[in-house]
Every structure is written in structure tokens, then in C-alpha cells.
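Priority: medium. Attachment 1 of 2:
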């Protein structure tokens, strides 16, 4: 081969290698720790964090446990006594946490943050799943199915976290809803109505649905995040894997961008104007240019069905749970990953 051509090829190879290294160095998230979870199978659902106690909680829905880690990812404790745990809320003032639990049944459990014992349980309708906390009234809004078999409606159950008691509920259309978000003043809730493929807007004072916004051209709405200063609501769907941006003043879709497949959790990084959407194999990082313009800047490699995640802005850390559901020899794959988030 011509020596000049050989030098040119070598230069291109070195340039390509340098470009890949540079891309890794410039990644907005850097993997710093991986904790394998041998003996685990199935999916995980949601994380919670205890900043003062430096603990991370993870619901292992198919393993029927809540797992406790330190903030560097080291596993501390496995808490049993659950049927299928989903959402979790840690309450720092009292060092307790609430776990939603349900499949063919429904319950929420109050758990001690000292000895990890279940202190109290409230029975709810079956199919308990996701939940959202309202700091304004200290209520925890828990999604479930209906009391009536075959009903084409479902419930949002309202738990007073101070007294740990059920104080009411309201009914929504369809058999299920996914993620919820509550405005900072505590007066309005946004909820993904899975059956009708819509965003529902709820007046929390009246406990009534006041608006329904179609998610045009997509199915299986999942995660949600709210950007109140810009009057924007972000919705992730699975079919197709897409992030939709809604104007909360008009209920109209402003724009959309493609995201990681089989996504489940989304986090809005206000300081960096980034959105992190975790799915299978990768987490999509989207940059908010302005209220109407968004750009996918990278796909950060995570792992199989790593749809469960948590972004902790106080630590600039991102946590992801790698699943093993439907995978051969799944115990070799399940893990918790810890990422540092770059400025």
C-alpha cells in the first residue's frame, strides 16, 4: 500500500479513537459504581432517597422486597413483608417511609427507618401502583384500580402522611394511570391516563378532573416531569418511544423528540436545563434550549430494562436499576448503577 495512504488511514483511525474518548469524557453522566444483585430476578420499580441518613431505597417488585443502599451504591439491607412493592416515599422529619404495594390486592405500608419494621398498613382497592407526594398538604396520592370488578374507572387514594390514614379518594376514567405531577402550590395535579392516552388535569381542592389533553400519535404514556417557570409538561411514551412537550396554558403539544425504548422514569434537571429519561439499555439526555426547543444530546449506556432511575440534584448523582426480567440467567445481570452528573 502507498505509504501516504497508510499514514492517512492511521491518522483517521487515531482521530476516530480520540473522538470516541472525547465523547466519553464529555458525557453528561459518568458511571462510578456498580452493585451486582445476585439472586434477584424480575423488575424493579422506583427509588427514594434519605439525604440526611445517606440511604437509597429501591422497590424490587418481583423480588417482593425493598432494598436499602448507601449513597455510593453499597447494599445495606433487604426488607421483606411486601407482595409487590412499587412507589416509595421517605419522610425525613420522622425517619419513616411509605411503600405502595399491590397486584391482585392493594395496600400502603408505613415502615420504620430505624429498624425497618412495618408499623402500619392501610388496605386499598387492588392494583395499587404509582404515587405522588404533595408537600403543600402533606398528602400522598396513590393510584389503584376500582372497588368494582370490571369497572372502566380507577381511583386516586389520598393518604394523610402525618396521621397515616386514608382521608378520601377520587375517580378517574380508564382502568389505569401512570405518572403524576403536582404544581408547587399544591392545587393542580397532572396525570397520565393510560387507557385513553391522555393527560388528565385534576383540581385537587374539588378532587375533580377538569381537563383532558390528547397525546396525539402515541400510546402507553409513562413518566412525567413538570417545568412550571416555562409552563411546560413533559410526557414520555413507549409506542413510539417519544418525549412530548405540552404547554400547560393551552394543553397543546409544542414539540416532541425520540427517546430510549421501554422508558419508565424521567427527571428534569432545572439547574442544567436537562431531562434524563431512563429506558432499556440507555438513558436519553435531552437539553432544553428554550421552552419550545429540545435536543437529544446523547444516549448514556446503562443496561437491560434499566428503566427505573432516580436523579438526586443535591448530590449531582443519577441512579439506575438494571433488571433481568425475561433474560436468560437473570441473576448475572441485575445491578444498581451510580453515575456522577457533570455540570
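Attachment 2 of 2:
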Amino acid at each position: 500500500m502507498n505509504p501516504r495512504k497508510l499514514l492517512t488511514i492511521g491518522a483517521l483511525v487515531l482521530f476516530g479513537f480520540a473522538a470516541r474518548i472525547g465523547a466519553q469524557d464529555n458525557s453528561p453522566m459518568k458511571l462510578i459504581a456498580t452493585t451486582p444483585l445476585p439472586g434477584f430476578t424480575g423488575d424493579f420499580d422506583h427509588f427514594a432517597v434519605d439525604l440526611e441518613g445517606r440511604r437509597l431505597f429501591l422497590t424490587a417488585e418481583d423480588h417482593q422486597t425493598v432494598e436499602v443502599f448507601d449513597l455510593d451504591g453499597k447494599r445495606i439491607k433487604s426488607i421483606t413483608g411486601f407482595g409487590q412493592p412499587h412507589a416509595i416515599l421517605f419522610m425525613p422529619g420522622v425517619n419513616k417511609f411509605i411503600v405502595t404495594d399491590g397486584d391482585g390486592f392493594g395496600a400502603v405500608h408505613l415502615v420504620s427507618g430505624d429498624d425497618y419494621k412495618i408499623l402500619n398498613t392501610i388496605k386499598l382497592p387492588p392494583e395499587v401502583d404509582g404515587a405522588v407526594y404533595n408537600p403543600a398538604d402533606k398528602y400522598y396520592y396513590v393510584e389503584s384500580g376500582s372497588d368494582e370488578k370490571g369497572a372502566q374507572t380507577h381511583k386516586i387514594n389520598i393518604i394523610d402522611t402525618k396521621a397515616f390514614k386514608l382521608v378520601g379518594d377520587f375517580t378517574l376514567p380508564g382502568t389505569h394511570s401512570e405518572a403524576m405531577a403536582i404544581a408547587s402550590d399544591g392545587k393542580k395535579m397532572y396525570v397520565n391516563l393510560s387507557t385513553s392516552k391522555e393527560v388528565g388535569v385534576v383540581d385537587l381542592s374539588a378532587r375533580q378532573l377538569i381537563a383532558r389533553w390528547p397525546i396525539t400519535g402515541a400510546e402507553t404514556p409513562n413518566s412525567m416531569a413538570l417545568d412550571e417557570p416555562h409552563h411546560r409538561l413533559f410526557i414520555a411514551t413507549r409506542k413510539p418511544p417519544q418525549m412530548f412537550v405540552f404547554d400547560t396554558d393551552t394543553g397543546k403539544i409544542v414539540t416532541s423528540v425520540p427517546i430510549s425504548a421501554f422508558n419508565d422514569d424521567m427527571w428534569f434537571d432545572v439547574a442544567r436545563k436537562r431531562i434524563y429519561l431512563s429506558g432499556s439499555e440507555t438513558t436519553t439526555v435531552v437539553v432544553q434550549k428554550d421552552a419550545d426547543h429540545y435536543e437529544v444530546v446523547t444516549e448514556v449506556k446503562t443496561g437491560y430494562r434499566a428503566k427505573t432511575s432516580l436523579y438526586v440534584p443535591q448530590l449531582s448523582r443519577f441512579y439506575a436499576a438494571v433488571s433481568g426480567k425475561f433474560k436468560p440467567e437473570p441473576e448475572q445481570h441485575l445491578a444498581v448503577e451510580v453515575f456522577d452528573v457533570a455540570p
